[in-house]
Design a protein that fits this description.
heterotrimer, A mainly alpha (636), B alpha/beta (351), C alpha/beta (279), B: 351 residues, alpha/beta, Rossmann fold, 2 domains, eight-stranded mixed beta sheet, six-stranded mixed beta sheet, 12 helices, 41% helix, 18% strand, elongated, disordered N terminus, C: 279 residues, four-stranded antiparallel beta sheet, 10 helices, 26% strand, disordered C terminus
Chain lengths: 636, 351, 279
């Protein structure tokens, strides 16, 4: 069996596993790939990297605050609209509803009673406006269920009614197409922080921020690495304490390396630190593996065939092209700024696409090489690592901006290290081929802990400044309360959709309504509740707008409903219902916000904005379908 | 003041709750016509259309004059056009004639129908705005050929001569932009972002082009987001400013976008000269507080008052004014010096 | 014979003046399979709909455990323990196996006002219930749409059994399936019988019905062509009766003539039974 190089590389381990379990097992990466949000997540990272490279201030905390500010209201709606679309319905009144709720609350606190009278207290007006929103949502659902008309048509009607009501009531009561001054309402000082508080990071200085950021990031990533090991490799029957010792010594050595880097200055110190990182890092990795995991049995021979060598060669060619592009085009040309085809923009775009293509091909080659032998796979992975390392030093040597010289350099170097370590681990330890609940549980928990640490690290970086930064003339940036509403709402809806009966029924009524009804799912009620959910989300956005803007235009929100639907689709939700996620909607909203603000951040003319959005939408839809097909093939 | 009855589309759910919000304004139905005072009467006109455009006609009668002038505009009855209408009403009251106000809510088809209707009713004179010349030049030329004097207002400075109109009363957007550019020079700005709230709207682009003509420094002209989504507007302006640290001025081609520009500049702590076009209460407050440098006011009250007056004088006395050239109502500027007064006038509805 | 679990006595159904079913009498007991055979248009679907509570019989009586019953709606039939697995399955293809299994009756855990699905329990029960029916689903997380037709039928049968069905009506479960997949479903039917369910198996394929059935009801144009216990009839006879007796013999004779040096009776019948809808 292991004689021929074409046999499954992991056959020795597989042979010991029970037959049915062999079919059931999917590795941690395969499990990750079948998440519906994965396409949106990759897109998010890709677009962020793209604009980060083409724009000077895009990577700053200020830009993050702006992007999240735009994404928040869009995202709250996109999450709700995603759920409605999973339930198989559309709501075209959502956009107009956001503005209508903002106008309603202002009219309630300002104009109720005699014209221009004292109005209601916000404590009464807010529940009333929520009740009105839910009533409109109920009306939508009720109409759709009773008339059996497409929700597209019914909510188009509601859209016009709401739009007309906004204009009509504004003019009837204040004789203007805008209503304003919610800050004159009773109870404003209580409610304003809830809906529109702001966190100005320049007013929050914390000198240990960078320590927390660095340590959180490093420790978090290390824990995640251990979690991936635990999830990916086969546990050995009897553990080797000597390995644990090596692991601990390795970690201590790494910490020593950080200390050396921190305390020394100059070439010698850096060299010592890197040697320490290399040696102790390897010691830690090998120690961890030796301690816990089964050594690999048969590595097979080195062999290449067309399926692997073709992408490999193409990847190297693309890599060389990318380098050539970066060398030929001049990075210092900053003229004709408001045009996408600046030399600088072209350079970044071409470079990123070529490198992206090259790395994707390497990934494909690596995956295909797994079929040949472990030795081949390792070799391909090591080539990838070498390319990444080369890229890191190339970027460092070729660019003028600090951003590329430090940030891109370090990130690429870390990536190269990770790939290298991963390929070494892969040649030493056996991949797991059977479900191991205990290992999954431990790995999962470690993964969550590591991710939390990384989140804390980034939060510290985003929310606090240091005196040094202030002295350097840092522009103020404000994180709005709506971001917390956005994250909170998304988290709750992810839970609702994934864990509750209502969530399950949402998928069911969208996927096959008749079938759902036959087994006792209250289909009509579920759909009506979904309409009420989107209306409730529109109410929340209306409150966020009213307390932020103080004055609401009658046109506010009109036409936004399509942006919500686009965000949901970009996030992987199927237009035909029955498939999608709430988190995808949120990610889609962040992608849209990045695309929208990335263009001015890159100093491009906004005439290109819709072209860009259209391209993203198309790519997203195609990519999501591709990934879904792959995922379903994996599941078979 | 005046009372109006608005013909509204029926509103379903909102109306239940909001019924209490609006006072009953339709009591003017019972008011007897009185020679000393203008009385409004709502008449529903031409209901053959699909009905989503807000169509209304309000007839102002006073003094017993039998002269009827039609004012056919693309009015959306927003704050801008309600000031124009007040100007027209005031002229009607002052002259003792009748003005029929026809707003098409940006629907050229409806506006064409309204013009034809005015002609068939034997109007003494037509004042019309020309947002979309392609459709409107034909019917108005026919009206002139039929012996009805026509004056264009607000938009139409390029086409009034082709129609054979007496004159055009409005603001030339390029001239308004030029005036703003000179103000920016005085205020010491060096690089301006001219932000528009609509894409491919010629009037807004002309405002920015005029600005670029007279302004000494660099002008970046760009669409920065719709008024319907102010969050995105503000953040887009913020992004453009952060991307270019040299920007120290923002010109918004509308009042809402000017406020977004101010918020963006304040958020990132940029000390920028902010200016806008047209008036809203917020913008006036911001000018009075000194946060916004100025706004370009096209004094649209005149665009309502003057066409009525000029048509009246033409019909009764064969006068013409302007010598075939347009009569410009702007740019007038509102800055911290006169913001307070303009604010009180604005509250009265004449600015 | 003692009282049967479900007895049908002279069931007749008119749609207006069209007679859909006339004087049908049969029964099924716990741990037995009654096969209802018939060609297209024989009245099988009317028969199912009456038992499932979608339609009501015009004449005749249904007795469940000796008690006369009359189902006004599918819900009532289900509540009485009669579960129907339709050909077009009540399944949501994009949802996972375990979610489909428990759809509409999810087990919940609660904390204060919050209620959420007990996923671990639902997955475990799905896995063990399917295993009890002899189905080895690789992964209960996989979407039902990725299962084979036979597996899907199997999940539906297991679900009906788990949720307390006493009588299981299967509407042509093998009609859309290949030979191997049909075998899978037939095994499930045998398993359900072994676990004490009364199964009514509707099919037009005698060679599927014969190995698993304890009793055969043959329908032709709304009329019973006979109600036999297993020992009373052979597969050949069953096939002949189902397709309308003499007509089939005529056709069979012609076919034998056409096939020079044919393999004799069994082969010819085999040909016929594998394509019964042609007759």
């Amino acid at each position: 069996m292991s004689e021929t190089v074409l046999s499954d590389s992991t056959s020795p381990a597989r042979a010991t596993a029970p037959v049915d379990e062999r079919l059931a097992y999917r590795s941690v990466f395969q499990r990750l790939l079948i998440r519906p949000e994965i396409g949106a997540l990759i897109g998010l990272v890709g677009i962020w990297v793209f604009f980060w490279a083409t724009s000077v201030p895009f990577g700053t905390a200020n830009a993050a605050a702006s992007i999240l500010d735009v994404a928040a209201t869009l995202g709250i709606m996109a999450v709700a609209v995603s759920m409605l679309m999973i339930g198989g319905e559309f709501d075209l009144s959502t956009g107009a509803m956001t503005g209508a709720m903002g106008i309603l609350i202002i009219l309630l606190v300002k104009e109720v009673g005699d014209l221009g009278g004292a109005g209601l207290s916000l404590f009464i007006a807010i529940p009333i406006s929520l009740a009105v929103a839910l009533a409109i949502g109920f009306f939508n659902g009720w109409m759709v269920e009773k008339t059996l008309l497409p929700s597209f048509i019914v909510t188009l009607g509601t859209f016009f009614i709401v739009k007309g009501a906004k204009l009509g009531f504004s003019k009837l009561t204040v004789d203007q197409i805008q209503v304003g001054r919610i800050d004159e309402g009773a109870g404003y000082s209580f409610w304003r922080p809830i809906f529109a508080a702001e966190w100005d990071r320049t007013k929050h200085q914390y000198e240990y921020r960078d320590v927390i950021y660095t340590l959180g990031l490093i420790i978090g990533l290390m824990i995640i690495a251990v979690a991936v090991f635990e999830l990916f490799f086969q546990r050995r029957g009897e553990r080797r304490p000597t390995g644990a010792l090596a692991f601990v010594i390795g970690l201590a050595g790494l910490y020593g390396g950080v200390a050396v880097l921190h305390l020394t200055d100059g070439y010698g110190g850096n060299l010592l630190a890197s040697v320490m990182f290399g040696v102790f890092g390897l010691l830690a990795v090998v120690g961890l593996g030796y301690w816990r995991y089964e050594p690999v049995g048969d590595r097979g021979r080195l062999s290449l065939d067309g399926t692997v060598s073709r992408p490999l060669v193409l990847a190297v060619v693309l890599f060389a092209l990318a380098i050539a592009v970066a060398m030929i085009l001049d990075a210092t040309n900053n003229e004709s700024l408001f045009f996408p085809f600046t030399e600088q923009g072209l350079r970044a775009t071409l470079f990123l696409f070529l490198i992206g293509g090259s790395m994707t091909l390497m990934l494909i080659a690596g995956i295909r090489a797994r079929r040949l032998s472990i030795t081949t796979k390792t070799l391909v992975n090591l080539v990838s690592a070498a390319m990444l390392g080369l890229l890191a030093f190339f970027v460092r040597s070729q660019s003028d901006s600090i951003k590329f010289r430090t940030e891109a350099f370090s990130v690429l170097l870390i990536l190269a290290t990770i790939v290298a370590v991963w390929s070494i681990a892969g040649v030493l330890f056996a991949e797991r081929t059977a479900i191991d609940r205990a290992a999954d549980r431990l790995g999962g928990r470690l993964f969550i802990i590591g991710s939390l640490l990384v989140v804390v690290a980034f939060l510290a970086k985003l929310l606090f400044t240091t005196t040094a930064e202030i002295d350097a003339g840092l522009a103020s940036s404000k994180f709005s309360m709506r971001i917390i509403w956005f994250f909170g709402f998304t988290a709750v809806m992810v839970w609702v959709l994934g864990r509750t009966r209502f969530g399950s029924w949402t998928f069911a009524v969208g996927g096959n309504k008749e079938a759902a009804r036959q087994v006792g799912v209250p289909a009509a009620r579920t759909k009506t509740q979904l309409f009420m959910l989107t209306a409730g989300a529109a109410w929340l956005v209306g409150m966020l707008l009213a307390f932020r803007l103080n004055t609401i235009q009658a046109s506010t929100g009109d036409g936004q409903e399509f942006e919500y639907i686009i965000a949901a689709v970009v996030g992987g939700t199927l237009l035909t219902g029955g498939y999608g996620t709430a988190l995808g909607g949120a990610l889609g909203a962040i992608i849209m916000a990045m695309a929208q603000l990335g263009i001015p951040y890159s100093r491009w003319n906004s005439d290109w904005r819709f072209m860009f959005l259209g391209a993203i939408l198309l790519i997203a839809v195609v990519a999501n379908r591709f990934i879904r097909n792959k995922a379903e093939a994996l599941r078979r | 003041m005046r009372r109006m009855r608005t013909v509204l589309a029926p509103v379903a759910a909102l109306s239940l709750v909001l019924a209490a919000c609006g006072g009953d304004d339709s009591s003017s139905d019972d008011a007897a016509p009185d020679t000393g005072e203008a009385v409004d009467e709502a008449v529903e006109v031409d209901d053959t259309d699909d009905g989503d455009a807000v169509e209304e006609a309000e007839v102002t009668t006073a003094g017993g004059g039998d002269l009827t002038i039609h004012m056919v505009t693309h009015s959306d009855d927003g704050p801008f056009w309600s000031v124009v209408k007040r100007g027209a009403d005031a002229a009607a009251a002052d002259l003792g004639i009748e003005v029929v106000w026809l707003g098409s809510n940006n629907d050229p088809e409806t506006q064409v129908q309204m013009i034809e209707q005015a002609v068939s009713e034997g109007s003494a004179g037509i004042a019309a705005s020309l947002p979309s010349p392609d459709q409107l030049v034909g019917p108005l030329t026919a009206a002139v050929d039929g012996g009805i004097p026509v004056i264009t207002l607000n938009s139409g400075s390029n086409d009034y001569q082709a129609i054979g109109a007496l004159t055009h009363v409005g603001q030339d957007e390029i001239i308004a932009g030029r005036g703003a550019g000179e103000r920016f020079n005085e205020l010491g700005a060096t690089k301006i972002l001219c932000g528009m709230q609509e894409q491919s709207n010629v009037a807004l682009e002309e405002r920015c082009e005029g600005l670029a003509e007279t302004f000494d420094g660099e002008v970046i002209i760009d669409f920065v987001g719709l008024d319907a989504d102010q969050t995105s507007q503000t953040n887009t302006i913020k992004a453009a400013m952060e991307a270019d640290p040299d920007i120290d001025g923002f010109m918004g081609t509308g009042p809402v976008i000017a406020m977004s520009g101010l918020n963006a500049a304040q958020d990132i702590g940029r000390d920028a000269v902010v200016a806008g076009f047209d008036l809203t209460p917020e913008l006036l407050d911001a000018i009075e507080a000194g946060d916004v440098a100025f706004t370009v006011d096209q004094q649209q009250y005149l665009q309502g008052y003057m066409p009525v007056l000029l048509l009246y004088l033409n019909v009764t006395n064969q006068n013409t004014l302007g010598g075939g050239l347009p009569i410009l109502t702007g740019p007038g500027f509102v800055d911290p010096d006169n913001a307070g007064e303009v604010k009180s006038l604005s509250a009265q509805g004449t600015r | 014979m003692s009282t049967q679990l479900l007895e049908l006595d002279n069931i007749t159904k008119y749609y207006g003046n069209i007679i859909a079913l006339r004087d049908i009498t049969t029964s099924v007991n716990a741990g037995e399979v009654t096969c209802v055979l018939g060609d297209n248009g024989a009245g099988k679907s009317t028969f199912i709909k009456i038992l499932a509570g979608v339609h009501q019989q015009t004449e005749g009586t249904i007795r469940l455990n000796g008690q006369e019953v009359r189902f006004g709606s599918p819900k009532e039939a289900l509540a009485a323990g009669i579960a129907t697995v339709y050909q077009d399955l009540a399944m949501v293809p994009l949802m996972s196996v375990w979610r489909n299994f428990f759809l509409g009756s999810e087990p919940v855990r609660r904390f204060g006002p919050l209620r959420w699905i007990d996923q671990d329990r639902a997955r475990e029960i799905t896995k063990s219930e399917l295993a009890r029916m002899g189905i080895d689903i690789r992964d209960t997380e996989q979407p039902v749409g990725t299962l084979s037709g036979g597996e899907r039928q199997s999940v539906a049968i297991a679900r009906a059994g788990y949720f307390g069905a006493k009588v299981l009506i299967l509407d042509e479960p093998t009609s859309a399936l290949g030979v191997k997949q049909s075998g899978v479903v037939l095994k499930r039917i045998v398993e359900a019988r072994r676990q004490g369910l009364a199964v009514i198996f509707i099919t037009h394929n005698p060679s599927h019905a014969y190995p698993v059935g304890d009793r055969f009801l043959i329908l032709n144009r709304g009329q019973s062509m006979g109600n036999f216990a297993k020992g009373e009839i052979s597969l050949e006879e069953l096939t002949r009766l189902m397709a309308g007796g003499a007509e089939l013999e005529q056709l069979q004779h012609e076919l034998e003539m056409a096939i020079a040096g044919g393999n004799g009776d069994e082969g010819a019948v085999g040909t016929m039974t594998s394509t019964p809808s042609d007759s």
